């Protein structure tokens, strides 16, 4: 009896159920280092199954033109996504995640719109709650789309990474928000379909103006938040289409994304509202920025001097930052570590949770360079050892060792946990210039009497240090 | 009353009500929070990227609307939706895999040989004494 009534539609729903279980397992596995990769593969398999079974839909199978167009769109998408995902430099990973997230939000918004148009073209007046679902999907999806696009542009440094503020910003953002609310109310009251386009346009604007005032250093947290938004937009599409798979998968990502965003912002010692809204209305004088000119004396050293210093130290802590990633210097950094260890110098890497541009980014880069796992110490593990270190070698990092985070309450990074490089006996900065770091704040540690500056490209300088250590 | 709501929900092609969907939605929120409650910070980026890939399943929704699209406007929007969703799902999983490739068995590979050596050394000393 049961077997007789088991239709293709049931098979499809069953496949969706298997995919839901696969996604939950994938997220669970992704949270543990040992099984993370397996988790991602399970997710990919679940997605493949669900997408494959979707092609059994009668509407899709029986409309040749629509089917062909769908396949062309998928082939095009895959043909672009695979090479981009495979060959973009590891340092550009954050931008890449931003863009893949944004397009997902865009897709969710479009789905809601098409479904609404479809219902209208059938002459159906959708129930109020269906319209609410559609409008929410359009709103959240579009904000995620345009917000991710701006995040991408910031990380790619096509525009400044600093917060972009202008007078009346708060007011303008508020007005756009109110305008969207009014449009949603009008759309619900009149049942007219035209408002959806206005809401689409306003939501795209909202995404842009929401992200502009967020500082470059905070963009990773923002991407995590937008990732969560896209999840919710997908869930909204699921409600519109009455599809459990989209509801569950989207909600899983939406809920876990909020938790992940909170974990990430607490790793930076900031609250989420502080990250999102701190630039609003605040007078950004970049505390101490005025002092950051050439008038203050700094001590510039030569690689030879520093090489000797390192070679005869007992304990050296290497603190890598984004500069190391940009210079692709992770392999050279490992060579230096090996050269020092060969001389019996105790050496390890101290990794700030947000070193690089995303939490965990630096671990990925150093793991790529085959730095032994045991030599990567998390900030909390490294900090107690800083006071006994002879040399703190800061490679292309700045904000993550800035003592202003401990000492200057007015500073934008005040309260962010830092690696206590200032406690080491000697501090060496490998930097391209005296320019402030990503957060745009001056660093007093650069002018400390204990500090030696080595200017130049991180990879180049590290190379010189390796030979200097070997010659010493 | 509930029956009425259930009935009105069936316009979308399924006879399951909005309440059932909301129930699943509420449960999924708790599951989502539960599964990622403890994540070491080194996995924050891969987890974000992995969950980014998972919401790429929006491709299923894009294919569904593509199936029922009528007229040039709907077809163009549907085509765009399928294209964007494919970028999301394919790019998301590939880039996550590439990130995680680098963590591949690092700690265990490292732990095993040293543990073996240690046990061998013990055996050796045991045999010698």
Strand content of chain B: under 5%
Indicate the low-confidence ranges of chain B by residue numbers.
1-15, 105-129
Q: What string, H for helix and E for strand, traces the elements of chain A in order?
A: HHHHHHHHHHHHEHHEHEHEHEEH
- The total tally of domains of chain A equals 2
Instruction: Supply Rg of chain B.
Output: 25 Å
User: What is the tally of helical segments of chain A?
Assistant: 18
How many helix segments of chain B? 6
Classify the helix fraction of chain B into a percent range: over 70%
Structural class of chain B: mainly alpha
Oligomeric state as shown: heterodimer
- Major sheet of chain A, described briefly? 6 strands, parallel
Task: Identify the strand order in the major beta sheet of chain A.
Answer: 3-2-1-4-5-6
Report the radius of gyration of chain A as a whole number of Å.
Answer: 26 Å
C-alpha end-to-end distance of chain B: 85 Å
What is the count of β-strands of chain B?
0
Can you lay out the helices and strands and say which pair or pack?
The complex is a heterodimer of chains A (472) and B (129).
Chain A: H1 8-30, H2 36-54, H3 58-62, H4 64-87, H5 93-121, H6 128-155, H7 169-190, H8 195-211, H9 219-241, H10 244-267, H11 272-277, H12 303-311, E1 315-320, H13 322-326, H14 330-342, E2 346-351, H15 361-368, E3 376-378, H16 379-386, E4 391-395, H17 404-407, E5 426-431, E6 451-455, H18 458-471
Parallel strand pairs in A: 1-2, 1-4, 2-3, 4-5, 5-6
Helix pairs in contact in A: 1-2, 1-10, 5-6, 5-9, 6-7, 6-8, 6-9, 7-8, 9-10, 12-18, 14-18
Chain B: H1 2-9, H2 18-35, H3 44-54, H4 58-68, H5 71-101, H6 106-128
